[in-house]
Write a structure and sequence with these properties.
- By secondary structure, the chain is mainly alpha-helical.
- It folds into 2 domains: 45 residues, Arc Repressor Mutant, subunit A, CATH 1.10.10; 157 residues, Tetracycline Repressor, domain 2, CATH 1.10.357.
- The chain is 81% helix and 0% strand.
- It contains 10 helices and no strands.
- Helix 4 packs parallel to helix 7 and helix 7 crosses helix 8.
- The protein is elongated.
- The model has no long low-confidence stretch (mean pLDDT 84).
Length: 208
Amino acid sequence: MADTKERLVDGAIKVLGSDGLAGASARAIATAAGVNQALVFYHFGSVDQLLSVACRQATESRVALYRERFTAVASIGELLDVGRQLELTERAEGNVAILAQLLAGAQTDERLAPAVAVCLDLWITEIEAVLRRITATSPVADIIDVPGLARIVASTFIGLELFGGVDPSGAAAAIAALERLAVLVEVVDGLGPVARRALKATLRKATK
């Protein structure tokens, strides 16, 4: 029984990648899984629920694949490097296309939206852990909203993944701009004690 459920999840992911959300019918998924379509409803109740489970399981496996790389990140620049590698790999394997389908479907399907949000949170949790670690000793640590920044970074990565499929040169230019920003952050982090204290004092005044 577990094997059948796994085959259906794998079938759902395969159909999303090849036919998109519009083609993800019970019949198409069951055909891809090599089982009777009635088993979609027996095991999951609905196609939407199957897609939700498939989304979460696929995301969990992808996040786990990159966790070691996230753990090794020591700067904003290195985080951008991981993001660039992630985008190239995920696009080559067809996962960016699946993400685009799920994000589009979640805009109008209230049953799918919570599952997609959970999947995005899995990535955000990893990014937030990285940001907490690499900004802990930064002169700007006191004014950074790490959870909010993690969501901005995640949204940027996702946006660039989708943007890259439409305008590769534009996405490359955006990444280059982010890299220049990362250099600025690293320069700030490398300030001496006197300059760090002055910067902190200025930032405290600016944020009151």
